[in-house]
Structures are given as structure tokens and as C-alpha cells.
Amino acid sequence: MFALFIITVAAAEVGVGLAILLLLYRNRQSVDLSEADLMKG
Q1: How far is CA 30 from the centre of its chain?
Q2: What is the pTM of this model?
Q3: Which among 6, 10, 21, 40 counts the fewest CB atoms within 10 Å?
């Protein structure tokens, strides 16, 4: 049961990561991670 919980949490983290990349691409029209430094403020 605990392993299923871990797999669920890992899948959620992947989903959040993909959502962040998608938002970066929509805002900057690029997925260049060097431009992601703009998120630091």
C-alpha cells in the first residue's frame, strides 16, 4: 500500500513539472532553461 502511495506522489510531481515547463513555453515561446532564471525574481 505504501508503494502505491509513493508511485502516486511521483506521478503528481511529474505532472507539476510538466505544467511548469508548459507555462514557461507559453510565456517565453522557448524551453531554454537558461531563460528560466527569470523566475528567480
Answers
A1: 15
A2: 0.56
A3: 40
Return the beta strands (E) in the chain as ranges: none
pLDDT of residue 9: 96
Phi, psi of 14 (to 5 degrees): -65, -40
User: In the chain, which residues have pLDDT < 70?
Assistant: 29-41
b/e map 9-40, b = 16+ CB within 10 Å: eeeeeeeeeeeeeeebeeeeeeeeeeeeeeee
- What does the longest C-alpha to C-alpha distance in the chain come to? 41
